[in-house]
Each structure stands twice: as structure tokens, then as C-alpha cells.
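Our preliminary data section would be incomplete without showing what the modeling component actually yields. Below, a chain of 253 amino acids is followed by its predicted structure, encoded as C-alpha cells that our downstream tools consume directly.
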Amino acid sequence: MLYICIPSRNEAPTIGVLLWRIRKVFREFSREYEILVYDDASTDETSAVLEPYHTVLPLTVIRGERQVGYARAVDALFRAAGQRTRYPRRDAVVLMQGDFTDQPEQLPELIKRFEGGADVVVAESAAVPTAPTAVRKLATWARRVAKLWPVRAHLSIGGVADPFGTYRVFRITVVRDVVRAAGEAPVTEGPVRVANLELLRRAAALARRVEAVSVEPRYDLRPRATRVQLWPDLKAILRAGWAARKRRAVAAA
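Predicted structure:
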């Protein structure tokens, strides 16, 4: 079973079509799947858009009554998938965005890597000319920041060039171990890119094998502007690196 986990807030213009494209992929690439959407207290028509899809797709919507943010939405999805599975070594969580940035048509390649033995598969975003300026600049600066000696060990993961993206596959045994290690705390924290980095760092530490696949994200299909904020996002990444360095120093003392 593949649990397609989608954290969503105000994605009414895209979420329905995204689900339909996922359905089309799995009609041609037959696998058992369930879609889990965390609706983070959307104020647009996301809930109404999702409603009719219950009758045509294996869909579960977890509705948040108040906005909790991306990291807490991912936490809820991880815990929901971990509780549903009957075969944790065979099943997986696929985490992807609710707009059209992460392409469902790339799922077969990611899933084949998982079925080939990888516990975590990371979809690394290739540079594309259609990416908004803020996205391209953030990718460039994030790579530079991740090479700075004081924080390098805390902002990089071996074998992964882009640890900040959302699109990934996690074996459920790893998901459960991440949840177990977190206890009552969320499995990850921080703004989107920091949360993705922290989640991957925790999962990679528990995985036997991590693989990366280069994919081309699409930014030209989204009806809204990017949510990337260059300097606030970069500042958050750098701050996360320093915080991790400080925690390690305290633990070693």
C-alpha cells in the first residue's frame, strides 16, 4: 500500500486536478494506494473541491479546525499512515505538495526505487528555466549556505544534493521509527524547507538506504504565485543549522 500524503492549505484551484492526475498514474502503473490529504483549515473552497472525490478515489481528508502549519500537517499525516498500515516493511508514505509543483507522473520512478530496496527516496528538484526567480535564487543560496563549515554537517545529508524539498518516499518502518523517536513531539518542526530538512535528517538516520532521483518540478502550471520568500527562508535554514550545531555541542558537553 502506498499512502499518498498531501499537506494542503488553500489549494482549491489545484488539489482536485492533482488527485485526478494521481488516479490516472495508478491506472497505468497499478499499485494499491490511498490518498491522505491534511486540509490545514483552508479558507477557500478546498473542502468543497475535495468532497466529490471521496466517491471515486480511495481518499481520506483530515480536516484541521485551526491552522497548524506545514510541519504539523506532515506530522498528522505520518501518524495517520503509520496507524493504517498492515505491512510496514512493504508499505510506504509518498509526501508531495498540493499544487502542481510535484508531478504525479514522476511517481513510478520514485516507487520503483522504493521497491528496489531504498527506505527513503528523495526527489531532487533540477534547475528549470520556468522556476520563479525567488525559487532559483533560494536554491543557489541554500546550496552555498549548506557548504559553510560551521553548519555544513547540520544542513547536508550524504548522497542528497537537495535536502529541502517535499517530494519523497518513506518506508513505513522508517515512518514508524521517526514517530516513535519523536514521542509526543511533532516529527518535524519549522517552516517548510527547514521542516523538510529536519524530517529527512531524522529518517535518513534510521534508514538502511537512501536514494536520490533528479526530477523536474513544474512552476508554470500553478495558478498562484510561489510561496517562497527568499531571505526569510534562507535565514530560517541558516538559523536551523546553527541551532542543530548548538544542540550537538550541548549534548557532547
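The radius of gyration is 17 Å. The beta strands are 2-8, 33-40, 59-64, 92-95, 120-125, 168-171, 210-215. Preliminary results of this kind motivate Aim 1 of the renewal.
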